[in-house]
Amino acid sequence: MENSEASISSTATRTWHDFLERMRQPSATEFVKSIKSFIVSFSNNAPDPERDSASIQEFLGNMEAAFRAHPLWAGRTEEELDNAGEGLEKYIMTKLFNRVFASHPDDIKIDNELHQKSALIQQFIRPEHLEIRQIYENETSWLLAQKELQKINVYKSPRDKLACILNCCKIISNLLLNAAINANQNPPGADDFLPVLIYITIKANPPQLHSNLSYIQRYRCKSRLVGESAYIFTNMLSAESFILSINAESLSMNETEFTKNMESAQLISGLSSETQSETVSNSKLKEVPSVSDLENKGAAVIVAEENVSEKFDNFPYLYSKAEDLTIAQGTRTGGEAAGDLGKIDGDEEGLGVPARLSAEIGGGSGVALEGKESMELNGDDVGGGKELGGPEPPLESSEAGIAVHSPEAKGDVVVDDEQKVEDVRVEGGRNDESTVAGKYMER
Question: Whole-model pTM above 0.70?
Fold first, then answer.
């Protein structure tokens, strides 16, 4: 299995660059025109998830068939032809991402419902509520799986998003298997895996999870969403469905306890977002009186004093205006600078306040770099050393069999020709020996 994973990782960068190189060839001109024409015409239509999915699936299928019949791929292996299809899918979906992702109001509504419900439940849920066996409890290591799932919004292509789910599930599978071996128990099955996946999904609570799952379901090439990846993806859909319909019975609680926990979580959640702003507003109202209040209070204090003249002597500039004050040049009257404040109408007497009137402007240019569309199929900057949608999330285990390494991706990442980009094959069938959780689960 390790050799298979190493082979997949070593071909990751080559797969993407091979697609770009072939699109630069003069004989690929018709392909380039077809791809650009499809993107333009698709973008001009109003969003309709069902129609959009069918349109993209049909285009991907037709283009892959055209690849097979073209001299550019003559004599190529099935793997190389498959890689061409992967490259096409990544390019098309990265270009159309903003147009198709979370484009339907129903998706946005479910996103909000799922995120808010998970945010409340995660405050009181424990492994025993999902009947997770004690030998499998390992919340510290489960954080690794949560981090992988939380990366799902970093990527744009359906394949890369699906790889984040596979990475998460691989960690879960390895942890369960190791725990069973250490406890001299039988290998874990699906009944052990799904509750842990649900628990980790609630704790991770990635934003727009429903939209991500719908995006994969609609726009991942149907011929590749099979085998092991389809099995894992189905488990993820089941986890989402469970969380949306979660109730007291689902968590092995009585109704009163569940209601109380939800109300407490809602109260805490509400306080965290509202109390701070209210406290700041109230404190400002109490601590900052109006200008007229200050003026009236100052006058009252002075009038009430017996030694009124002494007060005015101590504060000779009490009622001066800003334009009355100038900077004394070359005079030092108790101050630290040559130009001390206090020269009024020719009087050389100063206040003894150093005129260090420097304002330091800090900061820098807080420019947020956002991933630009880096590849154009017009010959000007095809590839350009940039990879669309960020690096492909790797699917690689450590010697302990549980750590998955992945570079943190921020938008588009420059990929040099010699740079290695870890990869994961998410299709089933041809490389089932390198896939993840299902190997250890009872189907």
Answer: no
